[in-house]
Design a protein that fits this description.
CATH topology of the largest domain: Restriction Endonuclease
Number of strands: 14
Shape: globular
Number of helices: 10
Strand order of the largest sheet: 3-4-5-6-7-8
């Protein structure tokens, strides 16, 4: 299992490893993550300790809506719990049977626009725990549900680490997180006159932008495991949160990429990069990168690298 190691420098300038620990009470972890839910996991908070009714007989730790409009169930465990996956499947089953109830909750907390944008094709479960067994990681790859396993640790000085351990790719309606499968479905092996539809039928890759998108996809998937999620209006490249959103503008011969990167840290170039803070747009990310030529993906590569390194 992946391990996160943190070090601090002592008075002599030597690096000393910080020892991680777990919380004494599960609710401590839950409240802290809920307070920073959107920043930490890209999920908007809806409710805490939500009852699932007499049939499922449980209380969901946290309900939310992620940045792509997917309903999210979050379960916290202060230690390692072998029952976390069965609980995840049970709560996702409740979610499938409670569309109207969930939509009413979203409407109440986030408003009508958010309620109308819910994407029921890709509900998620996020399990946050001190650890997961090898069997958990094997099982999550076999389950049809979309489940993220996140390992936490508490360090001195109030530091909290969240490490993305594993994810299930989800069922047939969900996009694959595997680079080769996405490229094959989105841009490969089709007649030159075709308009290609990514998996789940969300978004189109126009013929005039196929080659440019192939180069961009190569750059966006070069930084380890990346989940590629075709949505209604854009394609999201994500880890625990969206790192990049890709939109197509065939009339202008352009691809727009919105990166999760602070525009203040970038020297903006007119016609290539733009600060999108305070400007409404599809997708997520504050920095817009506009690609129109074959040289632009390589030009954008340092910005893409920085976005993924910070994710």
């Amino acid at each position: 299992m992946a391990e996160l190691m943190l070090f601090r420098q002592d008075a002599a300038g030597s690096d000393v490893e910080l020892s991680g620990s777990t919380v004494a009470l599960e609710v401590e972890l839950q409240r802290r993550v809920e307070a920073g839910l959107e920043q930490m996991l890209g999920i908007r908070f809806l409710a805490s300790e939500y009852p699932t009714g007499p049939w499922h007989r449980g209380r969901i730790d946290t309900l939310g809506l992620d940045e792509n409009g997917s309903p999210v169930v979050i379960e916290f465990k202060k230690g390692s719990d072998n029952g976390v996956l069965s609980q995840a499947v049970s709560y996702l089953s409740w979610l499938e049977s409670a569309h109207h109830e969930f939509e009413a909750l979203v409407r109440k907390v986030l408003g009508a626009e958010a309620a109308e944008s819910i994407d029921w094709r890709r509900p998620r479960m996020v399990c946050v725990a001190a650890g997961f067994s090898h069997h958990d990681r094997v099982a999550v790859q076999r389950l049809p549900e979309r489940i993220d396993l996140v390992r936490y640790r508490i360090f001195e000085g109030g530091l909290l680490s969240l490490l993305h351990v594993d994810s299930s790719p989800g069922g047939p309606s969900a996009a694959s997180s595997r680079r080769s499968r996405e490229r094959e479905a989105a841009v490969g092996g089709v007649p030159a006159t075709a308009v290609v539809s990514p998996p789940a039928g969300a978004g189109l890759v126009p013929e005039c932008l196929r080659d440019l998108y192939a180069e961009l996809d190569e750059a966006l998937t070069a930084w380890g495991e990346v989940e590629v999620v075709p949505l209604k209006h854009y394609i999201a490249y994500r880890r625990l949160v969206n790192v990049a959103s890709v939109l197509f503008r065939p009339k202008h011969g352009a691809i727009l990429v919105y990166l999760r990167l602070d525009p203040d840290s970038v020297v903006l170039e007119e016609g290539f990069t733009r600060d999108m803070r305070g400007i409404g747009h599809l997708g997520t990310g504050d920095l817009e990168v506009r690609l129109v030529s074959a040289a632009d993906p390589e030009k954008a590569a340092p910005l893409i690298r920085r976005a993924f390194e910070a994710a």
